[in-house]
Amino acid sequence: MGSIRKYILSVLTVFAVLMSCTWGYSEDHPQRIISLSPVVTEEIYLLGAEDRLIGITTYCIRPEAAGSKDKVGTVMKADIERIVMLKPDIVLATSLTDIRQMRQLEGLGIRVETFPDATDLETICAGFIRLADILGKNQEAENIVRRVRERVEELKRRTANLPKKKVFVQIGAKPLFAATKKSFVNDFITFAGGINLTEDLVSGLYSREKVIESDPDIIVITGMGIEGEEEKKVWMKYGTIKAVRNNAIYTVEPYGLCSPTPVSFVESLDNMIRMLHG
User: Contacts for 114-117 with beta carbons within 8 Å, 24 or more apart?
Assistant: First the structure.
Protein backbone atom coordinates (compact mmCIF):
# COMPACT_ATOMS: atom_id res chain seq x y z
CA MET A 1 0.00 0.00 0.00
CA GLY A 2 2.89 2.35 0.79
CA SER A 3 4.27 2.17 -2.75
CA ILE A 4 0.82 2.79 -4.24
CA ARG A 5 0.36 5.82 -1.99
CA LYS A 6 3.76 7.20 -3.07
CA TYR A 7 2.86 6.70 -6.72
CA ILE A 8 -0.48 8.50 -6.33
CA LEU A 9 1.22 11.39 -4.52
CA SER A 10 3.80 11.66 -7.32
CA VAL A 11 1.09 11.76 -9.97
CA LEU A 12 -0.88 14.38 -8.04
CA THR A 13 2.26 16.49 -7.59
CA VAL A 14 3.01 16.44 -11.31
CA PHE A 15 -0.62 17.24 -12.13
CA ALA A 16 -0.69 20.17 -9.69
CA VAL A 17 2.46 21.66 -11.18
CA LEU A 18 1.12 21.25 -14.70
CA MET A 19 -2.08 23.07 -13.76
CA SER A 20 -0.11 25.98 -12.31
CA CYS A 21 2.19 26.73 -15.23
CA THR A 22 1.92 27.91 -18.80
CA TRP A 23 4.61 26.17 -20.85
CA GLY A 24 4.34 25.55 -24.51
CA TYR A 25 6.38 25.55 -27.64
CA SER A 26 6.93 29.30 -27.57
CA GLU A 27 9.02 30.88 -30.28
CA ASP A 28 10.60 33.15 -27.65
CA HIS A 29 14.05 32.28 -26.38
CA PRO A 30 13.71 30.04 -23.29
CA GLN A 31 14.29 31.67 -19.92
CA ARG A 32 14.19 28.53 -17.76
CA ILE A 33 16.57 25.88 -19.08
CA ILE A 34 17.40 22.37 -17.92
CA SER A 35 20.50 20.71 -19.36
CA LEU A 36 20.95 16.93 -19.36
CA SER A 37 24.33 17.22 -21.09
CA PRO A 38 27.69 18.16 -19.52
CA VAL A 39 28.80 19.69 -22.83
CA VAL A 40 25.64 21.76 -23.22
CA THR A 41 25.91 22.95 -19.63
CA GLU A 42 29.45 24.16 -20.22
CA GLU A 43 28.44 25.80 -23.49
CA ILE A 44 25.57 27.67 -21.82
CA TYR A 45 28.18 29.28 -19.57
CA LEU A 46 30.40 30.07 -22.57
CA LEU A 47 27.45 31.88 -24.15
CA GLY A 48 26.75 33.85 -20.98
CA ALA A 49 23.28 32.37 -20.45
CA GLU A 50 23.96 30.66 -17.12
CA ASP A 51 21.42 32.88 -15.34
CA ARG A 52 18.70 31.01 -17.28
CA LEU A 53 20.02 27.56 -16.34
CA ILE A 54 17.86 26.10 -13.57
CA GLY A 55 18.80 22.40 -13.59
CA ILE A 56 21.65 20.09 -14.59
CA THR A 57 22.77 16.47 -14.17
CA THR A 58 25.15 15.09 -11.57
CA TYR A 59 27.65 14.65 -14.42
CA CYS A 60 27.74 18.38 -15.18
CA ILE A 61 30.88 19.38 -13.28
CA ARG A 62 32.24 22.11 -15.58
CA PRO A 63 32.50 24.95 -14.98
CA GLU A 64 32.80 24.73 -11.22
CA ALA A 65 30.11 27.40 -10.82
CA ALA A 66 27.54 24.97 -12.26
CA GLY A 67 27.74 22.96 -9.04
CA SER A 68 25.23 25.29 -7.39
CA LYS A 69 22.46 24.45 -9.88
CA ASP A 70 19.64 22.02 -9.01
CA LYS A 71 20.36 18.39 -9.96
CA VAL A 72 17.74 16.55 -12.02
CA GLY A 73 19.26 13.09 -12.43
CA THR A 74 22.01 11.75 -14.66
CA VAL A 75 22.76 11.99 -18.37
CA MET A 76 20.92 8.73 -19.02
CA LYS A 77 18.18 8.83 -16.40
CA ALA A 78 16.35 12.05 -15.61
CA ASP A 79 14.26 12.78 -12.52
CA ILE A 80 10.97 13.57 -14.27
CA GLU A 81 9.16 14.71 -11.15
CA ARG A 82 11.97 17.12 -10.24
CA ILE A 83 12.08 18.50 -13.78
CA VAL A 84 8.35 19.14 -13.79
CA MET A 85 8.51 20.91 -10.43
CA LEU A 86 11.20 23.29 -11.76
CA LYS A 87 8.83 24.44 -14.57
CA PRO A 88 11.37 24.63 -17.42
CA ASP A 89 10.73 26.28 -20.78
CA ILE A 90 13.03 23.73 -22.39
CA VAL A 91 15.01 20.56 -21.64
CA LEU A 92 18.25 20.06 -23.58
CA ALA A 93 19.06 16.36 -23.94
CA THR A 94 21.57 14.10 -25.69
CA SER A 95 21.35 10.85 -27.63
CA LEU A 96 22.22 9.07 -24.36
CA THR A 97 19.09 10.36 -22.63
CA ASP A 98 16.28 7.82 -22.26
CA ILE A 99 14.01 8.53 -25.26
CA ARG A 100 10.97 7.31 -23.34
CA GLN A 101 11.55 9.94 -20.68
CA MET A 102 11.94 12.65 -23.29
CA ARG A 103 8.65 11.64 -24.90
CA GLN A 104 7.07 11.70 -21.45
CA LEU A 105 8.24 15.29 -20.96
CA GLU A 106 6.96 16.29 -24.39
CA GLY A 107 3.64 14.69 -23.51
CA LEU A 108 3.53 16.98 -20.48
CA GLY A 109 3.94 20.01 -22.73
CA ILE A 110 7.65 20.58 -22.12
CA ARG A 111 9.82 21.42 -25.11
CA VAL A 112 12.72 18.99 -25.56
CA GLU A 113 15.70 19.50 -27.88
CA THR A 114 18.14 16.63 -28.38
CA PHE A 115 21.75 17.20 -29.40
CA PRO A 116 23.42 14.27 -31.22
CA ASP A 117 26.95 13.19 -30.37
CA ALA A 118 29.64 15.23 -32.11
CA THR A 119 32.12 13.33 -34.28
CA ASP A 120 34.61 16.06 -35.22
CA LEU A 121 35.34 19.77 -34.85
CA GLU A 122 32.72 20.67 -37.45
CA THR A 123 29.90 18.89 -35.62
CA ILE A 124 31.08 20.32 -32.30
CA CYS A 125 30.78 23.83 -33.74
CA ALA A 126 27.46 23.02 -35.44
CA GLY A 127 25.94 21.86 -32.15
CA PHE A 128 27.25 24.97 -30.40
CA ILE A 129 25.74 27.27 -33.02
CA ARG A 130 22.42 25.42 -32.80
CA LEU A 131 22.39 25.89 -29.03
CA ALA A 132 23.15 29.58 -29.47
CA ASP A 133 20.27 29.92 -31.90
CA ILE A 134 17.89 28.38 -29.35
CA LEU A 135 19.16 30.76 -26.67
CA GLY A 136 19.28 33.86 -28.86
CA LYS A 137 23.07 34.07 -28.52
CA ASN A 138 23.99 33.84 -32.19
CA GLN A 139 26.53 36.66 -32.26
CA GLU A 140 28.35 35.36 -29.21
CA ALA A 141 28.60 31.88 -30.78
CA GLU A 142 29.82 33.22 -34.11
CA ASN A 143 32.58 35.17 -32.38
CA ILE A 144 33.70 32.16 -30.35
CA VAL A 145 33.63 29.77 -33.33
CA ARG A 146 35.56 32.23 -35.49
CA ARG A 147 38.32 32.54 -32.88
CA VAL A 148 38.40 28.75 -32.43
CA ARG A 149 38.77 28.09 -36.16
CA GLU A 150 41.53 30.69 -36.46
CA ARG A 151 43.43 29.16 -33.55
CA VAL A 152 43.03 25.61 -34.88
CA GLU A 153 44.39 26.63 -38.28
CA GLU A 154 47.32 28.35 -36.59
CA LEU A 155 48.13 25.19 -34.62
CA LYS A 156 47.81 22.98 -37.70
CA ARG A 157 50.27 25.18 -39.59
CA ARG A 158 52.69 24.96 -36.67
CA THR A 159 52.69 21.13 -36.74
CA ALA A 160 52.44 20.60 -40.52
CA ASN A 161 56.15 19.95 -41.06
CA LEU A 162 56.95 18.21 -37.78
CA PRO A 163 57.70 14.45 -37.65
CA LYS A 164 54.56 12.30 -37.70
CA LYS A 165 54.26 10.18 -34.57
CA LYS A 166 52.02 7.17 -34.02
CA VAL A 167 49.53 7.84 -31.24
CA PHE A 168 47.33 5.45 -29.29
CA VAL A 169 44.54 7.14 -27.32
CA GLN A 170 42.93 4.83 -24.77
CA ILE A 171 39.37 5.87 -23.93
CA GLY A 172 38.38 2.82 -21.89
CA ALA A 173 40.21 -0.05 -20.17
CA LYS A 174 37.75 -2.90 -19.60
CA PRO A 175 37.37 -3.60 -22.45
CA LEU A 176 40.20 -1.67 -24.08
CA PHE A 177 38.59 1.05 -26.18
CA ALA A 178 40.31 3.41 -28.61
CA ALA A 179 39.58 6.42 -30.80
CA THR A 180 38.35 5.65 -34.33
CA LYS A 181 38.54 7.91 -37.36
CA LYS A 182 34.91 8.92 -36.78
CA SER A 183 35.62 10.74 -33.54
CA PHE A 184 36.84 14.19 -32.63
CA VAL A 185 39.76 12.51 -30.82
CA ASN A 186 41.00 11.64 -34.31
CA ASP A 187 40.95 15.38 -35.08
CA PHE A 188 43.08 16.05 -31.99
CA ILE A 189 45.67 13.55 -33.19
CA THR A 190 45.80 14.52 -36.87
CA PHE A 191 45.62 18.29 -36.24
CA ALA A 192 48.51 17.89 -33.79
CA GLY A 193 50.58 16.28 -36.52
CA GLY A 194 50.17 12.69 -35.39
CA ILE A 195 48.93 9.42 -36.85
CA ASN A 196 45.97 7.77 -35.13
CA LEU A 197 47.02 4.18 -34.54
CA THR A 198 43.39 3.01 -34.52
CA GLU A 199 41.82 5.20 -37.20
CA ASP A 200 40.67 2.16 -39.21
CA LEU A 201 38.68 0.64 -36.35
CA VAL A 202 34.92 0.41 -36.75
CA SER A 203 33.79 -0.18 -33.17
CA GLY A 204 36.74 1.16 -31.19
CA LEU A 205 37.40 -2.16 -29.46
CA TYR A 206 41.10 -3.04 -29.42
CA SER A 207 43.60 -5.28 -27.62
CA ARG A 208 46.87 -4.71 -25.82
CA GLU A 209 48.51 -7.25 -28.11
CA LYS A 210 47.68 -5.12 -31.14
CA VAL A 211 48.99 -2.00 -29.43
CA ILE A 212 52.27 -3.76 -28.66
CA GLU A 213 52.51 -4.98 -32.25
CA SER A 214 51.81 -1.48 -33.64
CA ASP A 215 54.48 0.05 -31.36
CA PRO A 216 53.09 3.58 -30.79
CA ASP A 217 55.36 6.55 -30.11
CA ILE A 218 52.83 8.05 -27.70
CA ILE A 219 50.13 6.54 -25.47
CA VAL A 220 47.43 8.84 -24.08
CA ILE A 221 45.12 7.52 -21.35
CA THR A 222 41.85 9.27 -20.56
CA GLY A 223 41.48 9.07 -16.81
CA MET A 224 42.95 11.04 -13.95
CA GLY A 225 43.96 10.14 -10.41
CA ILE A 226 44.27 6.54 -9.29
CA GLU A 227 42.50 5.14 -12.35
CA GLY A 228 44.86 6.84 -14.79
CA GLU A 229 47.98 5.95 -12.81
CA GLU A 230 46.95 2.29 -12.56
CA GLU A 231 46.53 2.09 -16.34
CA LYS A 232 49.88 3.77 -16.83
CA LYS A 233 51.51 1.12 -14.62
CA VAL A 234 49.96 -1.61 -16.78
CA TRP A 235 51.51 -0.15 -19.94
CA MET A 236 54.89 0.37 -18.27
CA LYS A 237 55.26 -3.42 -18.06
CA TYR A 238 55.64 -3.60 -21.86
CA GLY A 239 59.18 -2.35 -22.29
CA THR A 240 59.35 -3.10 -26.02
CA ILE A 241 56.91 -0.28 -26.86
CA LYS A 242 58.54 3.00 -27.95
CA ALA A 243 56.13 4.99 -25.80
CA VAL A 244 57.32 3.06 -22.73
CA ARG A 245 61.02 3.30 -23.60
CA ASN A 246 60.73 7.05 -24.18
CA ASN A 247 58.54 7.69 -21.14
CA ALA A 248 55.81 9.01 -23.45
CA ILE A 249 52.71 7.73 -21.65
CA TYR A 250 50.35 10.49 -20.55
CA THR A 251 47.11 10.66 -18.57
CA VAL A 252 44.55 13.36 -19.34
CA GLU A 253 41.23 14.26 -17.75
CA PRO A 254 38.42 12.79 -19.85
CA TYR A 255 36.03 15.76 -20.00
CA GLY A 256 38.10 18.01 -22.25
CA LEU A 257 39.26 15.20 -24.52
CA CYS A 258 36.04 13.18 -24.71
CA SER A 259 33.35 15.86 -24.27
CA PRO A 260 34.73 19.05 -25.79
CA THR A 261 33.12 22.41 -26.38
CA PRO A 262 34.66 24.50 -29.18
CA VAL A 263 36.83 26.26 -26.59
CA SER A 264 37.98 23.13 -24.73
CA PHE A 265 38.68 21.50 -28.12
CA VAL A 266 41.42 24.08 -28.68
CA GLU A 267 42.76 23.57 -25.15
CA SER A 268 42.93 19.79 -25.67
CA LEU A 269 44.54 20.22 -29.09
CA ASP A 270 47.19 22.47 -27.57
CA ASN A 271 47.83 19.82 -24.92
CA MET A 272 48.05 17.06 -27.54
CA ILE A 273 50.67 19.07 -29.45
CA ARG A 274 52.78 19.41 -26.29
CA MET A 275 52.56 15.66 -25.68
CA LEU A 276 53.61 14.86 -29.25
CA HIS A 277 56.26 17.49 -29.85
CA GLY A 278 57.23 18.92 -26.48
Answer: 115/37, 115/39, 115/40
